Amino acid sequence: MTLNGTKNSDLHLCAVSGDAGDPLIERAYAAPPRPSRTAFQRDRERIVQARAFRRLAGKTQVFTSRSSDHFRSRLTHTIEVVQIARLVAQALGLNEDLAEVLALVHDIGHPPFGHAGERALDECLKRHGLRFDHNLHALRIVEHFEMRYAAHRGLNLTLGVREGIIKHSHDYTVEQYPVLAPYLLDRRPPLEAQIIDLADEIAYLTADLDDGVESGLLEINHIRQHVDIVDHCFTQVERLHPGIEEKFLFNEAMQLMQNILSDDLIKTTLANARAIGANSLEAVRSHPDRLAVFSPQAEALRQQEKRYLYETLYTCPELSLEHDKAEEVVTALFNFWVAEPEELPANYVEQIESEGLARVVADYIAGMTDSFILLQYAQVKRTVRR
Ligand code: MG
């Protein structure tokens, strides 16, 4: 594999092998051998067939109101992250199967209504001395909630995938989360996990501009005036295709932006790994910082665009209204089931004794799609009125 003509095969040792004997393919329960597939390919099957994965199709990425058929859902966003993660993993000589699985599962713990739903659920739990965290929730889904296999609860995923779920985007401390101690919290995750958060960034930095323009809430010239990387990409495409129609110009520019950020991530990660002579997974793990990062220049551009999206799109009046509604729905349902736990489905009632009522209610809500939670809200409102 080459990157700009540079051989990076000397870095293959950084990759998770995934072969027999690799501790990262260990599972909590013995699984019958399947010689035709690697351990991480089996995890891919298990995740793609999970109910929580299918429900991503009905969960908001940014836009809750479906005023366009073209907006991303959590599922189509996930597929975009998979594509970028595989591309980066391949260029770096990493384990592509592991990178793909981690991308597929990276948003599985998200509640309905995007980040507004997550914030609302977190606020509800805070009043009970608890927190909601989508990565920790993802681990609960794959370890406990999915019920597909006779021998155990959960999906029985490999250690490498469970570690990646916990560590791809956030550094937890063992003091805060003693239950996560088996995931080597004081060590960096493998590069396959480190690239996921950045593949996620690359995906949504492009997609949210696209959906933002589609919604009419963002305007291309305004974006170009305030976001340097976007203006740079438009200028490049205009130079290459003079007189190009606006729709093609926009799409070509977005594609170019994705390529620029992906290439930067690949080059910078490669340079970082070389600089410390990281020729083993151990070297990646013991390094104090993550090796998979953007260059300082690309990082500055990324932050500028992210700020723009926050100020101009995520907090604009139209989306703020959607967020308020999401908060109202989540909070009302949470309060209702905490007051009336017998109204929960029987399999959730059973969990109350071991998990506590507030956590069980949050688990139930977190699993819902946008349309299902709105249905519940309508029903509960009718119940309360009676
Ligand atoms: Mg994501």
- Residue share in β-strands: under 5%
CATH topology: Hypothetical protein af1432
Number of strand elements: 2
| pLDDT < 50 stretches | 1-9
CATH superfamily: Hypothetical protein af1432
Structural write-up:
The protein is built from 18 helices and two strands. Residues 1-9 have low confidence and may be disordered. The chain has a two-stranded antiparallel sheet. The protein has one domain: Hypothetical protein af1432, CATH 1.10.3210. Helix 5 packs across helix 14. The radius of gyration is 22 Å and the shape is globular. The N and C termini lie far apart (67 Å). The protein is mainly alpha-helical and 386 residues long. It has helices at 39-48, 51-54, 74-92, 96-105, 114-126, 134-145, 159-167, 191-215, 220-226, 228-240, 246-275, 281-286, 296-314, 317-339, 346-349, 352-355, 357-367, 370-385, and strands at residues 2-3, 6-7. It binds magnesium ion (MG). Residues 77, 81, 106-107, 200 line the site of magnesium ion (MG).
Can you summarize this structure?
With 386 residues, this protein is mostly helical.
Name a few traits of the molecule.
binds magnesium ion; mainly alpha; 386 residues; 18 helices; two-stranded antiparallel ribbon; Hypothetical protein af1432; single chain; disordered N terminus
Topology, element by element:
Elements: E1 2-3, E2 6-7, H1 39-48, H2 51-54, H3 74-92, H4 96-105, H5 114-126, H6 134-145, H7 159-167, H8 191-215, H9 220-226, H10 228-240, H11 246-275, H12 281-286, H13 296-314, H14 317-339, H15 346-349, H16 352-355, H17 357-367, H18 370-385
Antiparallel strand pairs: 1-2
The site of magnesium ion has 5 residues, from helix 3.
